[in-house]
Amino acid sequence: YNLTPNLFLYNFAVKIPVIASNIALAYATKNIMQRLNMPPKKVQFAWLFLLFNPFTLLTTAAWGEVDGIIALLSIVSIYLLSKGKIIKSSILFSLSIVFKPISLPLIGLPLLFSSPKNRRKNAIYILILIAFVVGLWILPFNLFGWMEPSSPSNLTSYFRMAGGITLFNIVELFQKAATLPSGLWFLGYLWVPVLLAGFYVVYRNPPKTMEKLAESAVLFLFIFFLTRSWTSEPNINMVLPFLLILYGAGKIDKNAVHLAWIIPFVFLFLNYAVPQLFFLIYPQIIPALGTLDLQIGTARLIARFAVTLVWYIFGVTLLYRVFSKNKGG
After folding, report:
1. pTM across the whole model
2. In angstroms, rounded to a whole number, what is the distance separating the alpha carbons of residues 55 and 324?
3. How far apart are CA 242 and CA 29, in angstroms?
4. 3-class DSSP assignment, residue 178
5. Count of alpha carbons within 13 angstroms of residue 27, beta-carbon side
6. Mean pLDDT, to the nearest integer, of 71-85?
7. Do 264 and 166 contact (CB within 8 A), yes or no?
């Protein structure tokens, strides 16, 4: 256990909260499903799924990514929203955005859930969101002179990235950089009009229950993940608890829940994500992977793109089911 102070601090300050949030997410999802009177066997499955799912454990506990925290804040926030607790809901949702803005696709759910005539609730939600984002995401960087993560140059660079578990990873077959070609920069913003179209569809038949809110959340998240130019594998953890709610409500089957993590899990291996985890105990793994990639690099990129195609087929099929059952809600 020859840990350096920095490594110890990393594991203590980052990984312990991530692991704790994974456990809390399992119990929160279980509690929500129980309150919705879902079948006990399905509730038990969801609880065990979130506690021991290898994809979640690898992409959060092993990597130290905070997507599990965001998933926890988001699903509790939406449950509180379904109970009319707009202030608590907006606080938790605002915190999820501050942690990592991958929950942004869900930003309009409170406006869709509450009546357009209820301007007071909508105004409270928007004001709390603005206050938290400014107070925790923008103001501290200006006060302490830190580099702003949301500065125009950083945002522009972010939208030029191309890869991850998206069809845009094909660019790496033709160029070394994982960025959009200069003439196709606008594709980095493709998710914006597509997501707005999704909001319009839900607006025409707004959600009125927790189950319908979960359907809308799955719809928005998949639209976001499938149309972004870059989607990291840990981001998929955001959608898993909502899929479990739909499974508990009988909207999707268990196979759909499993495919939602198995396909990205296969993708992880093609990204060398799994063997790289052993670099601390076997440092030679990194140069060994570099040598291996010289031999199979092109085949690996083609296989990775093929797995991404399967992911898209799955996502579009799932969205079709959500659309077809999201009538009269």
Report:
1. 0.90
2. 29
3. 9
4. coil
5. 6
6. 94
7. no
Rounded Cα–Cα distance for residues 216 and 242 (Å): 9
For residues 65 and 8, which has the higher predicted lDDT (pLDDT)? 65
Q: How confident is the model at residue 112 (pLDDT cuts 50, 70, 90)?
A: confident
- Find all residues with CB under 8 Å of 184, minimum gap 6, and list them: none
Q: How far apart are CA 267 and CA 58, in angstroms?
A: 13
CA dist 176 and 157 (Å) reads 17
| pLDDT score of 184 more than 50 | yes
CA neighbor of 164 nearest in space, from 313, 314, 275, 312: 312
Report the candidate in 96, 61, 55, 58 with the shortest Cα–Cα distance to residue 75.
96
* DSSP 8-state code for residue 114: S
Tokens of 322: 């959500």
Contact 237, 277 (CB under 8 A): no
Report yes or no: 81 and 214 within 8 Å, Cβ to Cβ: no
Amino acid at 145: G
pLDDT tens-digit series, residues 5-54: 565 666 667 788 899 999 999 999 999 999 999 999 999 999 999 999 99
Return contacts of 278-281, CB within 8 angstroms, 24+ apart: none
Both tokens assigned to 38: 């879902």
In the numeric block, the tokens 């809600």 are attached to 329
Calculate mean pLDDT across residues 158-167.
Answer: 89
Assess contact for 184 and 215: CB atoms under 8 A.
Answer: no
As beta bridge partners, residue 161 has: 179
Q: Where are the beta strands (DSSP E) in 125-189?
A: 163-164
Neighbour-count burial for 292-303, b at 16+ CB within 10 Å, e otherwise: eeeeeeeebbee
Please report, as a single letter, which amino acid is at residue 9: L
Residue 171, CA distances (Å) to 49, 124, 174, 229, 230 in order: 34, 43, 5, 11, 11
Q: Give the position of tokens 């570099």.
A: 290
